Description:
This protein is α/β, with parallel strands linked by helices. Helix 1 (about 15-30) packs parallel to helix 2, helix 5 (about 105-120) packs across helix 7 and helix 7 (about 140-155) packs parallel to helix 8 (about 180-195). Strand 7, helix 9 and strand 8 (about 225-230) form a beta-alpha-beta unit. It has an 8-stranded parallel β-barrel with strand order 1-2-3-4-5-6-7-8, surrounded by 5 helices. It is globular, with a radius of gyration of 17 Å. It has helices at about 15-30, 45-55, 80-85, 95-100, 105-120, 130-135, 140-155, 180-195, 215-220, 235-245, and strands at about 5-10, 35-40, 60-65, 90-95, 120-125, 160-165, 205-210, 225-230. The chain contains 10 helices and 8 strands. The structure holds phosphoenolpyruvate. Phosphoenolpyruvate binds near residues 209, 211, 229 and 231.
Amino acid sequence: MTRKLIAGNWKMNGSLADNEALLRAVLAGLPAAPAADVAVCVPAPYLAQVQALCQGTALAWGAQDVSAHERGAYTGEVSAAMLRDFGCRYVIVGHSERRQYHGESDEAVAAKAQRALAAGITPIVCVGETEAQRDAGQTEAVVKRQLAAVIHTVGHCVSEIVVAYEPVWAIGTGKTATPEQAQAVHAVLRAQIKAATPQAARVKLLYGGSMNPANAAALLAQPDIDGGLIGGASLKAEEFLRIVRAAV
Ligand code: PEP
């Protein structure tokens, strides 16, 4: 069975003081060898702090975005090599908030995933449909198109990515996909990855969208759900830890 991954997405939240309190509480509650992989994806300015607090622990860390460019005149961007300098194991790419508010195309997301892979960082590639797309029966086509762009760009390296299915209508809304709804989409994504690589079993498929301690176990029990990408609940140590404990 695939080892599960529970990854927190802090989004644009935190401060030096709040991060320290949150991380110390999470670290205190994590067993030395958790049953699942556990990570937090934090705002870039805090990577050094998180690295200092989490180095040598069971808690990995990552960033929430990366530049599609290697280096140079891209003011405000952060490169994959810079993330590697701070020990990032993961970087989220193509979160719906970036697709929506920053106009990130499928191709830009794919280029970011490729930059991460080239730097030895695992991209957590987010895909997901809006409510209007779901209502129009387009869920499958949308997520397949988003993932296909990444497969097209990274080729056989697709075996090294993590995919997060995050229905846009479930993010930060308290509306969670039912385990059956999520599993149905995960099965589609699994089949797409199987068709792209003989190493498909290596690829973890996370669910994200209002996952919390009350719904995590049922979602994580689905055959094709290999973990969770956790927004709001990752900012509360006890909630995050309860989700980690549900991932067995
Ligand atoms: C997210 O932003 O990746 C997310 C899943 O958020 P939330 O858990 O708050 O819905």
